Amino acid sequence: VISWLPRLEKELKILGESVHRNFRLWLTTEPHDSFPSILLQQSLKITYESPPGVKQNLLRTYGSWSPEYIARGGSPIRAQILFVLAWFHAIVQERRTFIPQGWTKYYEFSFADLRSGADIVDSLTLSDSSAQPASAADLPWTTLWGLMKFAIYGGRIDNDHDMRVLYTYLRQFFDENVLSANARRNQPRHLTRGLELPVTTSHGDYVKLIQSLPDSDMPSVFGLPENIEGSVQRAQSDLVIGQLRKLAVSSALSSKFDRETWRVQLAPILTLWRKLTQANKELVATPPSLPQLADESQLSPTASFVVLEAGKAHELVMSVHASLTLLSAVVNGTGLLTPVVHADAASLLGGLVPWRWAKHWLGPDQPLKWLRELLARREAANQWLRRAAEDTLLRRVSLAELYQPRTFLNALRQETARTRRVPIDSLRLTCTWNDQLLPKTAKVTMNVEGLLLQGALFDAGNQLLAAQSATSPSMSLLPPCKFAYVDKADPEPYSRQSGSISVPVYYATTREDLVCEIRMPCRSEHVNQWILSGVAVFLNEY
Q1: What CA–CA distances, in Å, run from 296 to 292, 402, 420, 474, 520?
Q2: What DSSP string describes 214-266?
Q3: Could you give the CA distance from residue 503 to residue 444 in angstroms, rounded to a whole number?
Q4: In whole angstroms, what is the distance from residue 219 CA to residue 226 CA?
């Protein structure tokens, strides 16, 4: 058909303006590299997306696999592994619906990955001499996991915790007991509840099994918590609101200076900043300091960090104040419009935080919220300075109040190394909700509060992760815990043997800025459940 398209182009040119004004020519096509670009430019293009859901994904896969391909080798074992591969492919693709809790970003898992996976299955199950598949017990499962993880699907993943989710799926699905569910083994395992693989090489039997699946996917199919729909709706609504905010101000409006329009559009931002600075004049006018300690050499690493953090907070506030003051003068006709002011205004008109501000601190996306949070952290910096002067800094710490929480944790590590007179690289971070579980090497401890948990609840009484219900809030407040740096050789307060999981701590709910990792207690048999649930801790709820 591609070779015929140049002829179609000529026919359309011959028709010219002689066709009826209501005439429309509809063309349907799949993506093709050889499709004429000129014809594309002359057309109105409509993109049709494939129906979502695991069921539709499986039907597309089996629509591309012929009955002869499924029956190759004549053994049900290979046919079952191919179904497991199709199921795994559908799960990792459809899990993208639940970004950022399902995956932290949109990974381009494609049909090429499925085809490569099928080639691996053939190479491991079909013998070159007899063309007969091996038995399920003799299959090199570890090799299959490794190739899928490192060479095919895992090659697209750049986040360690996403890689852990992928590997958990691989070990859960590609298993001898999944294939042997109908053989009445001692520990049969199913891909999902009620789904038993047919012991057959019939393409139609697998299609019939797929058609028996529900049209909509329950979160449990992916191992995700029941309340994740609320998180998805929240993320989607934030995305839509952001897009609508950008549409509210056209690109032409933000690139062309119109004093009256700028005055109206920027009034909420300028008014808010004026009110905030008038109510907190000392935060803008007075630079932070530690007057009690004249010699900076007397400061501990954590206190030194607080001084630097407070100075950065003040500099950023002053920079934003100067920027908005100049912008206010421009819209009021008393200032000169410079390229820098124009760039800041263009960002604000488009509903974005100017890059000159955001490069110092990646806070909320909305300018109004960003300004409120900026002054809140400036005020918190004064409180941190006071506690540092009183030597009570580590008694109560909210990492959400910092611009650079990772740097503060490094300062705590350095302070611990100085106190214990040990190399800094011999220490690792630990966390506990029970002081008695801390190793004796925990000489410098920090009480942390305000951490937010997503993907699970925390049972403070039993000190265990607990499942969320459909009505549970998306995030819950963790009880205060204790952070400390201890020797790498010291046992974990919550060991892998007794049951625990490494949980990432992110700066914000976008899961882009990783601060650290902590181990949280759970039942050993539920570790995989919490990995697939996307359990994570956040410092800020934005």
Answers
A1: 10, 21, 21, 44, 37
A2: -SS--GGGGT--TTHHHHHHHHHHHHHHHHHHHHHS-HHHHHS--HHHHHHHH
A3: 22
A4: 6
For the record, the structure tokens of 412 come out as 């705590």
Q: Contact 376/478 with Cβ under 8 angstroms?
A: no
The string of pLDDT tens digits covering residues 84-113 is 999 999 999 999 999 999 999 999 999 999
CA dihedral 454, 459, 463, 465 (to 10 degrees): -40
Q: Name the helix (H) or strand (E) containing 340.
A: helix 339-349
Collect all residues with Cβ–Cβ distance below 8 Å to 424 and sequence separation of at least 6.
413, 414, 417
Least confident among 45-54, 341-350, 383-392: 45-54
Give residue 392's identity as a one-letter amino acid code: T
Query: Residue 358 region, left (φ>0) first, then alpha (ψ -120 to 50), else beta?
Result: alpha
**Predicted TM-score (pTM) above 0.90:** no
The pLDDT, as a whole number, for residue 101 is 93
What torsion, rounded to 10 degrees, do the Cα atoms 460, 461, 466, 471 define?
A: -80
H helix or E strand, kind and range, residue 415: helix 405-420
The amino acid occupying position 189 is R
Angle at Cα 134 formed by Cα 133 and Cα 140, nearest 5°? 120
Q: Mean pLDDT over residues 177-204, rounded? A: 76
Separation of alpha carbons 177 and 180, rounded Å: 5
Distance, in Å, from the CA atom of 349 to the CA atom of 253, rounded to the nearest integer, reads 8
* Alpha-carbon distances of 432 from 4, 277, 427, 500, rounded to whole Å: 70, 40, 16, 11
How many CB atoms lie under 10 A from the CB of residue 398? 16
Cis peptide before 225 (omega within 30 of 0): no
Strand pairing class (536-538; 500-506): parallel
Confidence of residue 229 (pLDDT cuts 50, 70, 90): confident
Closest by Cα among 15, 16, 13, 45 to 31: 45
Give the pLDDT confidence score for residue 257 in this predicted structure.
79
For residues 464 and 460, give the distance between their C-alpha atoms in angstroms, rounded to a whole number.
7
Give 45-70 as a DSSP string: ----PPPPSHHHHHHHHHHHS-HHHH
Q: Tell me which residue of 528, 416, 466 sits closest to 173, measured CA to CA.
A: 528
- Stretch 323-329: mean pLDDT, rounded? 94
pLDDT at 121 > cutoff 50: yes
Query: pLDDT class for 187, splitting at 50, 70, 90?
Result: low
Spatial distance between the Cα atoms of 386 and 396, rounded to a whole number of angstroms = 13
CA distance linking residue 287 with residue 315, whole number of Å = 9
Contact between residue 350 and residue 249 where contact means Cβ atoms under 8 Å apart: yes
| DSSP code, position 475 | E
Return phi, psi of residue 224, to 5°.
-90, 155
Residue 482 CA, distance from chain mean position: 26
